[in-house]
C-alpha cells in the first residue's frame, strides 16, 4: 500500500510543478462537504451516484412530497380540501416512518430535540 501512496504523492507533486492545479474551479474557497452520517456506509456510494445523476432514492422522493404537501396544506383556504390533503400527508408520513428504525419526525429538522432537551433539563432540577 505504501508503494501506491508514493506513486500518488509523486504524481500530485508533478502536477503542482506543472501548474495543473492553478486554475481549478473553487480554488481558495472552502470545500462543501456533505453530512452523510444519516446514510448507512454501505449505501453512501450508491446515493452519491444517484445524486450525481439527478435521481433521488425513494425515501428522499417521499420526503420531498411530504414537504410539498405540508406547504400546500398550510396555504389551503378550503377546509374540505385541507382535510383531504392532511389525510394524504398522514399516510405519506406513516409510509416514511415504516422505512426507518426511528420516527421520521424525530429526524426531520430536529423538530422535537429542543422539547426533549427541555423536558430532560426540567427533570434534573
Considering the chains and any ligands shown, give keywords for the structure.
125 residues, mainly alpha, 6 helices, elongated
Set down the secondary structure blueprint:
Blueprint: H1 2-17, H2 41-52, H3 58-75, H4 79-98, H5 104-107, H6 113-124
Helix pairs in contact: 3-4
User: What radius of gyration results from the CA coordinates?
Assistant: 23 Å
Largest sheet: none
Low-pLDDT sequence parts = none
The helix/strand class is mainly alpha
Number of helical segments?
6
Tally of DSSP β-strands? 0
Helix content: 55-70%
H and E string: HHHHHH
Which percent band covers the strand fraction? under 5%
Any idea what the shape is? elongated
Tell me the distance between the termini.
55 Å
Mean pLDDT: 83
Your description of this structure?
With 125 residues, the protein is mostly helical. The chain has a domain of 87 residues. It is elongated, with a radius of gyration of 23 Å.
